[in-house]
Design goal:
By secondary structure, the chain is α/β, with parallel strands linked by helices. The chain has a domain at about 5-175: Carbamate kinase (3-Layer(aba) Sandwich), CATH 3.40.1160.10. It contains 13 helices and 20 strands. It has helices spanning about 15-30, 45-55, 65-70, 70-85, 120-125, 155-165, 200-205, 215-225, 285-295, 325-335, 335-340, 365-375, 400-410, and strands spanning about 5-10, 35-40, 90-95, 100-105, 115, 130-135, 135-140, 145-150, 170-175, 195, 225-230, 240, 265-270, 270-280, 305, 315-320, 345-350, 350-355, 385-390, 390-395. Strands 3-6-2-1-9-11-12-10 form an eight-stranded mixed beta sheet, sandwiched between helices. Helix 7 runs antiparallel to helix 8. The longest helix is centred in the first third of the chain and has 16 residues, at about 15-30. It is globular and about 80 Å long. The two termini are about 40 Å apart. Catalyzes the phosphorylation of the beta-carboxyl group of aspartic acid with ATP to yield 4-phospho-L-aspartate, which is involved in the branched biosynthetic pathway leading to the biosynthesis of amino acids lysine, threonine, isoleucine and methionine. Its EC number is 2.7.2.4. Belongs to the aspartokinase family.
């Protein structure tokens, strides 16, 4: 008997019909002889709607109360799905994140998992029940308060449970048929990827591909959890994310033995650019700046430091970070302005990040030239550049991001003949 963890996103459970469709698939999985644990997100745009509602009441909601509010969306989904499964004649029991043993630190809004103790989940599935868990949430052992894991936290919940329960696979269900070479909403002719390494998927998730959350991929890679990305709206095979490059892959006759140069193009609109202007060009100032930002619990992505103008003794340091972290980081830096000795701060939310990902690029010359030539021909100017062994990322004007995605996607021959199908979801 296999143990399968299935995670269904908000677009899959957006209404009663969607919940019935998910319930049918879950029951079919159990009827095939498997033990099943299900993790659900909030219905449709519920989380965004709750954020909007809170914003109409206050501009500075207490973090603890925001977690109490936002965690309610997943609890609604889990209870409704349990009812739908019961209606089909199967036995199901729903659990909140804390009941499922998801123990986190005490940081509200972006809590991190520190322990997983799914005793009640194990008991339920051993009794032949389908266990349904509210994703995105846990409980702080320190404060005994409800916490949320941040955007994409339901993916992380599913992988954490799969790892602790030694599941055979963690299936991530969404509103497209798998991982594509680009977001089909932006590049309609994007092609589905059948298999992708966890390293490449990690870069794509970090670069803005919303199909899987970064923390989910990191967790799966660390604990060797196989991920299977599929659509809850179809029976197509989907995409396998291989947790280890040494995993054995069955090569069908006629398939190329070497992996393609490029796996895909990712983009991200959720970051802002910060430029600290007039920083004293002496050792230790960069460490001081990034220590302040880290103290504000802000994650930094790309970093560029300019060469100081001759004789000025000062330099500029630019970096990107999530927009949701922007205010806290700027406030912390301004509070330390006299201490650090910089002149001013420029803050820009109207940026977009574009990334080209592929493990094959490290052994193929000319990739960078083709990438930048495509952007040049599309009239896209570049503000920042960052690279890794299997990724090239640039920051550009947000208004040009869609154009840039389609230009690079086409330049590397990733366009397919048919348009990809997006079954549901608003992309909000």
């Amino acid at each position: 008997m296999s143990l399968i963890v299935q995670k269904f996103g908000g677009s899959s459970v957006s209404d009663a019909e969607g919940i019935k469709r998910v319930a049918k698939r879950v029951v079919e999985t159990q009827s095939a002889g498997n033990q099943v644990v299900v993790v659900v997100s909030a219905m449709g745009d519920t989380t965004d709607d709750l954020l909007d509602l809170a914003g109409q009441l206050t501009a500075a909601a207490p973090a603890r109360e925001m977690d109490m509010l936002l965690s309610s969306g997943e609890r609604i989904s889990m209870a409704l799905l349990a009812m739908a499964i019961t209606e089909l004649g199967a036995s199901a029991e729903s659990f909140t994140g804390s009941q499922a043993g998801m123990i986190t630190d005490a940081f509200h809004g972006k809590a991190r998992i520190i322990d997983v103790s799914p005793h009640r989940i194990r008991t339920a599935i051993d009794k032949g029940e389908i266990a349904i868990v509210a994703g995105f949430q846990g409980m702080s052992r320190e404060s005994n308060d409800i916490t949320t894991l941040g955007r994409g936290g339901s993916d992380t919940t599913a992988v954490a449970l799969a790892a602790e329960l030694a599941a055979d696979v963690c299936e991530i269900y969404t509103d497209v048929d798998g991982v594509y070479t680009a977001d089909p909403r932006v590049a309609p002719n994007a092609q589905k990827i059948d298999r992708i390494s966890s390293a490449e998927m990690l870069e794509m998730a970090a670069s803005g591909a919303k199909i899987l959350h970064l923390r989910c991929v990191e967790y799966a890679r660390r604990f060797g959890v196989p991920l299977h990305v599929r659509s809850s709206f179809s029976q197509h095979e989907g995409t396998w994310v291989l947790p280890d490059p040494d995993d054995k892959i069955t090569i069908q006759e006629g398939e190329p033995l070497e992996q393609p140069i490029i796996s895909g193009v990712a983009h991200d609109r959720s970051e802002a650019k910060v430029t600290v202007v007039g920083v004293p060009d002496i050792p230790g100032k960069a460490a001081e700046i990034f220590g302040i930002v880290a103290g504000a619990n802000s994650n930094i992505d790309m970093i560029v430091q300019n060469v100081s103008t001759q004789g000025s003794g000062k330099t500029d340091i630019s970096f990107t970070l999530p927009i949701i972290d922007g205010k806290e980081a700027i406030d912390a830096l301004n509070a330390a302005k006299a201490q650090v000795g910089f002149d001013s701060i420029d803050y820009n939310e109207q940026i977009g990040k574009l990334s080209l990902i592929g493990a094959g690029m490290r052994s193929n010359p000319g990739v960078s030239y083709r990438f930048f030539q495509a952007l040049h021909e599309a009239g896209v100017n570049i503000d920042m550049i960052s690279t890794s062994e299997i990724r090239i990322s640039v920051v550009t004007d947000a208004k040009l991001l869609d154009t840039a995605v389609r230009a690079v996607h086409g330049a590397f021959g990733l366009d397919g003949e048919a348009e990809a199908t997006v079954y549901g979801g608003t992309g909000r």
